[in-house]
C-alpha cells in the first residue's frame, strides 16, 4: 500500500458540536497521522473556490452558505491508503445512508451539514492540500 496524503475538513456543524477531538481520534486510531492542521473561518470566495467543481449544481449556494457559517478545521492526513481510508471512516455523503460507526452516521444530521470533507482522489488531494497549506506548513514525522 502506498503512503498518501489527503485533505480533511471538519465542517462547521461538527465544530459547533464540540466534536473536533472525537473526529481526529478516529483518524489517529485508524493509523492516519495529522501532518498539518489549522482552524479557519472561510469566506464565500475561499469556500466557493474549494467546491468549484460543484458551481453549476443546484445545491452550490447552500453548500457555500453552510461552509461559511462557522469555523472549520482543515487538516492534512498521511498514511497507507489515506485517501480511501479517510472516505471509509467518513461514510456516505448522505448521513442517512452512511454505514453505522462512520463519522457521518455518528455526527451528521443532513446531507447539507455532514460533518466532514475528504478528498475523493489523488488529483483532488493534491489540489486541495495546496489550496489550504504551503509546503512549510506540512510537518511529516
Ligand atoms: P465532500 O466533498 O464535502 O467531502 O462530500 P462528498 O465528496 O461526499 O460529496 P460531493 O458530491 O463532493 O458534494 C459536496 C457536498 O455538497 C453537498 N451535497 N448536497 N443536496 C444534494 O444533493 C447534495 N449533494 C451534495 C454535501 O454537503 C456534500 O458533502
Ligand atoms: Mg466531494
Automatic annotation (TrEMBL):
Matches recorded under Gene3D superfamilies: Nucleoside diphosphate kinase-like domain (3.30.70.141)
EC number(s) reported in the record: 2.7.4.6
Chain positions recorded as ATP binding sites: 11, 59, 87, 93, 104, 114
Domain of life: Bacteria
Keyword Nucleotide-binding on entry: yes
Family named by the database record: Belongs to the NDK family.
Role noted for this protein: Major role in the synthesis of nucleoside triphosphates other than ATP. The ATP gamma phosphate is transferred to the NDP beta phosphate via a ping-pong mechanism, using a phosphorylated active-site intermediate.
Assembly and interaction partners: Homotetramer.
Identification of the protein by name: Nucleoside diphosphate kinase
Designated gene of the protein: ndk
